[in-house]
Design brief:
about 0% strand; mainly alpha; about 210 residues; Heme Oxygenase, Chain A; 10 helices
Length: about 210
């Protein structure tokens, strides 16, 4: 069993909590209030900017050229996500320049950037992997009976796509390369990131 697989399986309670969150289920059924999704779009754009910076910091710390290139390629994937969010924002009247990060968002981005600045590359990949694994999981679960035709179909289509799964798998491969042992710090960092994901969706639901 790989490190990333072991970590993912050890945190299935949090993955299921995210899947069952009424925000995610509202995306699944198309019944989520537009105002809640608009709030999420703004908060997630703020998060993704931090995620892209973390990729760049990881690349700078990378000891080999192959990994350096992969981190920059993955950062490009985040920029594509941000373009998707800009499209949502334009459609629904969200000014991303005016977004103020909520407590749950700031807690996640502060953790992510502090890890990226202050730790070795193995722990940086561990902090970032849950987001990609979780969104691929959520997208595939929501699309398993076919992508519905409603307001949030593009969200489901994006995260259930083979292209997004490939990005998640590439980050997992970097975790395997650089996080070579399942130390307690590895487990705690991964779990904290999953808790942040759960709290992020909950904050969007109660917004």
């Amino acid at each position: 069993m790989t490190i990333s697989t072991d970590l993912w399986q050890s945190n299935q309670d949090l993955a299921q909590a995210c899947l069952e969150n009424p925000f995610v289920q509202g995306i699944a059924t198309g019944t989520l209030e537009r105002v809640k999704f608009a709030y999420y779009v703004g908060q997630d754009a703020f998060f993704l900017e931090a995620f892209a910076r973390a990729y760049s910091l990881a690349a700078a710390k990378c000891p080999d050229w192959e990994g350096f290139n992969t981190f920059h390629y993955l950062a490009g994937g985040v920029l594509e996500e941000l373009r998707l969010h800009q499209g949502y924002a334009t459609e629904w009247g969200v000014d991303l320049q005016q977004v103020e990060p909520a407590t749950a968002t700031r807690r996640y981005t502060d953790f992510l950037l502090a890890t990226a600045w202050g730790n070795d590359i193995g722990l940086v990949t561990v902090a970032m992997t849950p987001c990609m694994q979780l969104y691929a999981f959520l997208g595939q679960q929501l699309a398993k009976d076919g992508i519905p035709n409603h307001l949030y179909a593009n969200w489901i289509r994006t995260y259930s796509s083979p292209e997004f799964e490939q990005l998640a798998e590439q980050l997992e491969s970097l975790t395997e390369r650089y996080a070579t042992t399942l130390l307690s710090s590895v487990k705690s960092i991964y779990r904290y990131a999953m808790v942040c994901e759960r709290d992020f969706f909950q904050a969007a639901w109660i917004s």
